[in-house]
Every structure is written in structure tokens, then in C-alpha cells.
């Protein structure tokens, strides 16, 4: 029997949305993610520093054109790692853009996270890595003109 090399991180996370324009506005316009690629009606991909967030139209991705078919029904989940000191700023920023905070969770470790819904109904969490015992992230600098960077 062979032993595989270790896996060290997740490269891509996939969510599904039928209204890709609304999803692009949410993830790009409100959350500030950079669009890497888009094909209207099929997908929009966002680049983060060390991973990709891929949003596919579920009906199109199930057809599999050239790639193995995939898709799901119902809400998915993604969690963005943020510094614990930035959670209040994220909450204020989201609410200023009309995004309701669905839930705030205090974890047994004493750390907390917040949950919202994207336009497709996916659960989007913002949490410090410490909820999993991972090293913390530094807080972002404060911007005097706005509660979040452009």
C-alpha cells in the first residue's frame, strides 16, 4: 500500500447560484472580492489571496461540458476567515449594504462568528480561524472615510 503526499489546503470552494449577476454584486461589490473570470449564465470566479471561490449556475454545471458534472440544490455554506477584531466592522459594513445578519454564534472556545445569506440563499459565515484553534489573523487597518476598504 502507498502513502499519499499530505494535503495542505483547500484550493477551491464552490457555491451555486442561479442569479450570477446578483451573486457577483454580493461577493464582488459588497464583500470586495476580485473577479478572476466570468462567463455570463455559467459561472463567476473570485480570487482570494490563497484560494478561489467559484460560483456556478447549478443547471449548467450539471451538464459537465468537458469537466465532470457537479451541482447541488439548497443552500451551501462558505466561511471567510477574518480577524476577530474585524467582526464588528464586517457586521456594520454588511448592514450598511442592506445585508441582514442572520445569526451570531459564540463558540465554546469563546470566539464568535456571524452568518448572513447571499442572494442565492447560501450561508456565508465570517469567523476568526481561532474557532478551530488555528493561528489568528491580524486586524485590518481602520479607514477614516469608510468602515471597510474599497
Describe the structure.
This protein is an alpha/beta fold and about 150 residues long. The chain has a single domain (about 10-60, about 75-130), classed as 2,3-Dihydroxybiphenyl 1,2-Dioxygenase, domain 1. About 15% of the residues lie in helices and about 25% in strands. The protein has 3 helices and 8 strands. The protein has helices spanning about 20-30, 60, 85-95; strands at about 10-15, 35-40, 45, 50-55, 75-80, 105, 110-115, 125. Strands 1-4-3-2 form a 4-stranded mixed beta sheet. The radius of gyration is 17 Å and the shape is globular. It starts with 11 loop residues before the first strand and ends in a 23-residue tail after the last strand.
Describe this protein with a few key phrases.
single chain, 150 residues, alpha/beta, 2,3-Dihydroxybiphenyl 1,2-Dioxygenase, domain 1, 4-stranded mixed beta sheet, 3 helices, 8 strands, 27% strand, globular
Could you tell me the number of beta strands?
A: 8
CATH class type: Alpha Beta
* CATH 4th-level superfamily: 2,3-Dihydroxybiphenyl 1,2-Dioxygenase, domain 1
Mean pLDDT: 92
| Strand arrangement in the largest pleated sheet | 1-4-3-2
Coarse shape: globular
The main sheet comes to: 4 strands, mixed
CATH topology: 2,3-Dihydroxybiphenyl 1,2-Dioxygenase, domain 1
User: First CA to last CA: what distance?
Assistant: 51 Å
The proportion of residues forming helix, as a percent range, comes to 10-25%
Runs in which pLDDT lies below 50 for 5 or more consecutive residues are: none
| C-alpha Rg (nearest Å) | 17 Å
The SSE string, one letter per element, is: EHEEEHEHEEE
- Which structural class do the helices and strands define? alpha/beta
Number of helices: 3
Beta fraction: 25-35%
Amino acid at each position: 500500500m502507498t502513502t499519499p503526499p499530505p494535503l495542505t489546503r483547500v484550493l477551491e470552494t464552490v457555491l451555486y447560484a442561479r442569479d450570477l449577476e446578483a451573486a457577483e454584486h454580493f461577493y464582488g461589490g459588497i464583500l470586495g472580492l476580485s473577479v478572476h473570470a466570468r462567463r455570463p449564465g455559467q459561472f463567476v470566479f473570485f480570487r482570494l489571496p490563497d484560494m478561489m471561490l467559484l460560483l456556478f449556475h447549478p443547471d449548467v454545471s450539471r451538464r459537465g461540458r468537458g469537466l465532470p458534472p457537479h451541482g447541488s440544490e439548497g443552500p451551501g455554506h462558505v466561511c471567510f476567515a477574518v480577524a476577530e477584531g474585524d467582526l464588528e466592522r464586517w457586521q456594520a459594513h454588511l448592514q450598511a449594504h442592506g445585508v441582514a445578519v442572520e445569526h451570531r454564534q459564540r463558540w465554546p472556545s469563546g470566539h464568535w462568528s456571524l452568518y448572513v445569506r447571499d442572494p442565492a440563499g447560501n450561508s456565508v459565515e465570517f469567523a476568526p480561524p481561532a474557532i478551530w484553534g488555528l493561528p489568528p489573523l491580524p486586524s485590518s487597518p481602520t479607514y477614516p472615510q469608510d468602515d471597510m476598504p474599497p
